[in-house]
Design a protein that fits this description.
Largest sheet: none
Order of helices and strands: HHHHHHHH
Shape: globular
Number of domains: 1
Distance between the termini: 45 Å
Oligomer: single chain
Number of strands: 0
CATH architecture: Orthogonal Bundle
């Protein structure tokens, strides 16, 4: 008996609109200091609570849109909760240790199986739960939620979700995991870099300066401070994906197949039985042929 193929949950128009609105909000939250003038009060401690308050209903909108367009039910939400708990449990294992964060590979693999919509919600919720476990609640938390959501969403958007399997898929996910781990650090640096005082003149943010000059300073800042954390994170993601990825993918797809997220209910009557006429229905069952 052959197993039914499992495909990542596809995006519909409502899911795309919800993800686009959420991502646009995140991009604006990260980028606005680069466009602020010298007199602006730059402090994410002021805008982070507003971003967090806006992020929660947006995440709910993504989940609701995905459920309404694909027919996912409580089983999918339960699986989402289990994976979010697993991701949160992995986060303390590498927190504060040279950038080693094993939760990245699980977010990438889960996003691949569950699809971009649920992957985005999974990444954000996992980061939120992980922050509660590690005591990492602060102005940076909503930005971490957004960035990890983008990591998992991108994995769900990779090509060949229903056809690519085996070593080729693992290589694809390993490359994506390495790139996304590096980009995670690159994007998250934008959350704190404009507000760090005492840096050298070549890497400090200067409010009101042309965007190109500040971006050049930002690149120097990343090279000088961030790569020591980002590169080990990328390498660990590659190693875990290539060694454990096949087993984890099979387990996730087996759980998804058994949950039958994409199954359509079908009702059949036993041979030789007539369907009961529903009460209040105008239809009348056809008469049986007379025996001769």
């Amino acid at each position: 008996m052959t197993g039914r193929a499992v495909r990542a949950v596809r995006l519909g128009p409502k899911s795309i609109a919800a993800l686009a609105l959420t991502s646009a909000t995140g991009v604006a939250a990260f980028a606005w200091p680069l466009l602020a003038d010298r007199t602006s009060g730059l402090a994410h401690s002021q805008d982070a609570p507003w971003l967090f308050a806006a992020l929660l209903p947006l995440l709910l909108a993504v989940a609701v849109a995905t459920v309404s367009e694909t027919g996912l039910d409580a089983k999918a939400v339960a699986m989402l909760g289990v994976l979010a708990a697993a991701g949160a449990a992995l986060r303390p294992l590498g927190a504060g240790t040279a950038g080693l964060e094993p939760m990245f590979f699980l977010m990438v693999l889960s996003g691949r199986v569950l699809g971009p919509g649920f992957g985005f919600v999974l990444g954000a919720v996992s980061m939120f739960a992980g922050a509660l476990l590690t005591g990492g609640v602060g102005p940076w938390m909503p930005f971490q939620m957004l960035t990890m959501g983008w990591v998992s969403m991108g994995a769900g958007l990779l090509p060949g979700p229903g056809t690519l399997r085996g070593r080729r898929e693992l290589l694809l996910l390993a490359v994506y995991g390495a790139v996304s781990a590096l980009l995670y650090g690159l994007v998250m640096n934008l959350q704190g870099w404009p507000y760090i005082a005492g840096l050298g003149s070549g890497i400090s943010f200067v409010p009101g300066d042309p965007l190109g000059e500040n971006l050049a300073r930002y690149a120097a800042y990343v090279l000088a401070t961030s790569l020591g954390w980002d590169v080990p994170r990328a390498l660990l993601t590659v190693v875990l994906t290539l060694t454990l990825g096949g087993t984890v993918l099979r387990a996730l797809r087996r759980a998804t197949r058994r949950a039958a997220f994409d199954a359509s209910p079908a009702f059949r009557t036993a041979p030789g039985q007539q369907e009961d006429v529903q009460e209040g229905s105008d239809s009348v069952p056809a008469p049986l042929p007379e025996s001769r």
